[in-house]
Amino acid sequence: MLNGAAGDDHQLTRRPRLRFAPAPTGLPHLGTARTALFNWLYARHCGGEMVLRIEDTNAELATAAHIDQILEMLSWLGLDFDGAPVFQSQRGALYHAAVDRWLDEGRAYVDDGAVRFAVPDEGATSFDDIVRGRVEFPNASIDDFVVRRSDGSATFFVANAVDDLDLGITHVVRGEDLLNTTPKVVLLRAALDATDMPTFAHLPLIVNKQRKKLSKRRDDVSLTSYRDQGVLPEAMVNYLALLGWGPPDDVEVRPLDEIVDLFDLADVNAAPAMFDLDKLTAINGEYLRALDDAGFAAAVAPWVRAEPWGADLDAATLSKVAPLIRERTRLLGDAPDRIAFLFAEPRIDPDDWAAAMTAPASDILDRARTAFAESDWSAATLHSELRAIGESFGLKLGKAQAPVRVATTGRAVGPPLFESLTLLGREATLARLDAALAMLARAADFGE
Asked: Which residues contact 377 (CB under 8 A, 6 or more apart)?
């Protein structure tokens, strides 16, 4: 199969076949996830196939835990693949056969126990790239490179050249950082008598706001980190699709099936793509707002139930709370802190307290406590009562409700106040107003 006899199978007129080949520790990285997504989008757009190939020839890196992490993250993103995963560690015989052939043909030689491929001194190695156009490397700039290590294992270049030819890969879509390895793979493919070349597409670098390449040492590049902060997989996929590609109608937030329909590698931009956390969380917020109460409650439940006060909250209670915070929530991980006051004693923010508890805060709280003790317990009634109290002091509702909000929730900003109080309940609300009044009285006694 490595002698080019199956060459007609690789023509681009056949059904597209792409491969995603992450390094064993690669997938949780945003860039690697973007590569997986672009392969998947193009395969599904063209009605083709996506092969998952695990580059596990390095036994120290390719642990079972790392491979499980790759599969877990693909599953979280909702990216399926066709057929069983291909493990390079199980294909050593093919790689050795290729290297032995090059030795027999004088295309490779032994050097200090390793086998090196003899790169021609003259000419150039070139290929067409959908994103970058015609790419050419003078052969004089390519050193003879190792194809078999001294321990007998084949290198990355050999495995890629052999596998792409053997598996009938028609498109190689990967990051720009691998561009300089491509001429070596092209040379090896030609040395296997391949009569065609896959279509290459080297995706742009992902950079931070300082226009520097994302780095594990400097930037938060872990896909797991964003999942744990509460980014929905649908939102992450939508955002990753925009890192180097954009829909022709400029509508960026849209269902995945529409992205599949519109996606084309020819529309990928060669310029670096900037990772913008604010944009990611804004998109995530749009997806969260699109959920109904039950859907949002289900999404936020793991974060809420990780809190001591939320461990036993049932779905019905969460569904009642959901409308209070859904509109302003951008990350699910932020949600528990915004509703904690409903289920546990609030932690008073000292700065908010100082700003809200100025005159006539004590009088407002006292009159609110009296009105709330006897009024109908509904958001509309509580709103009306407090507005009337504010007007009696010449205050608009926003100013009048500030001390009540801080007294009952602990903060100056939060979910809609009156809807929150109806869920908090009359007894708890009155108790917190009493506590605030007592604090103000003590402060007055000490002249604070």
From this structure: 422, 425, 426
Question: Within this chain, do residues 364 and 320 fall inside the same structural domain, yes or no?
Answer: no
Any domain includes 112: no
Tell me whether residue 356 is in a domain: yes
Write out the two tokens for 385: 């009562």
Q: What is the mean pLDDT of each run of 10 residues along the chain (448 residues)?
A: 33 77 75 96 97 81 79 94 93 97 98 97 96 97 97 93 96 95 97 94 95 85 93 98 96 97 97 96 98 96 96 93 95 96 96 96 98 97 98 96 98 97 98 97 80
Sheet holding 108-111, edge to edge: 108-111, 114-117, 145-148
What is the rounded distance in angstroms from the CA atom of residue 368 to the CA atom of residue 382?
9
**What amino acid occupies position 317?**
T
Residues 6+ apart with CB under 8 A from 147: 99, 102, 108, 115, 116, 117, 154, 155, 157, 158, 188
Query: What amino acid positions are annotated as catalytic residues?
Result: 216
Query: pTM, whole model, 2 decimals?
Result: 0.90
Q: What is the DSSP letter of 119?
A: -
- Helical ranges in 141-206 per DSSP H: 156-166, 182-191
375 and 397 part of one domain:
yes
Bridge partners for 137 per DSSP: 125
pLDDT at site 448: 59
pLDDT the model gives residue 62: 67
Domain containing 425: what range? Answer: 350-445
Q: Which residues on adjacent β-strands are paired with residue 203?
A: 175
Strands 133-138 and 145-148: unpaired
Which residue type sits at 163? D
Q: Which residues pair with 29 in a beta bridge?
A: 222
CB 419 within 8 A of CB 365: no
Measured CA to CA, the distance from residue 324 to residue 416 in angstroms comes to: 6
Q: Which residues contact 101 (CB under 8 A, 6 or more apart)?
A: 2, 192
Q: Do 160 and 223 share a domain, yes or no?
A: yes
Q: Find tokens 């015609």 and name the residue.
A: 134
| DSSP SS3 for 398 | helix
